[in-house]
Amino acid sequence: MFEIRPIKSSEIDRALAVLLHDASLDEAQIADKVESFHRIAQQEHYDLTRQIVVLRDNKIIYTCLMVLN
After folding, report:
1. Whole-Å CA distances, 38 to 7, 27, 45, 66
2. Which candidate, 55, 48, 42, places its Cα nearest to that of 20?
3. Three-state SS for 18?
4. Where are the beta strands (DSSP E) in the chain?
5. How, if at all, do strands 51-56 and 59-65 pair?
6. What Rg do the C-alpha atoms of the chain give, in angstroms?
7. Residue pLDDT, tens place only, 9-43
8. Cβ neighbours of residue 53 under 8 Å, at least 6 residues apart?
């Protein structure tokens, strides 16, 4: 069963890791991408709580970040 809902603040980094996932990267490299994205988000004034997540068994399997144009 799936759960679809707005993200909780405590899930932002986990969701970004899913959003930025690249199978050719290891966990440390993905963590670096998440950290870099945080800097970009701050510069561009992205609200990282504007995400919808899809969970299965309490694990985020999909996410969508909405960015105002």
Report:
1. 16, 17, 10, 15
2. 48
3. helix
4. 2-6, 51-56, 59-65
5. antiparallel
6. 12
7. 999 999 999 999 999 999 999 999 999 999 999 99
8. 4, 5, 6, 7, 11, 15, 60, 62, 63
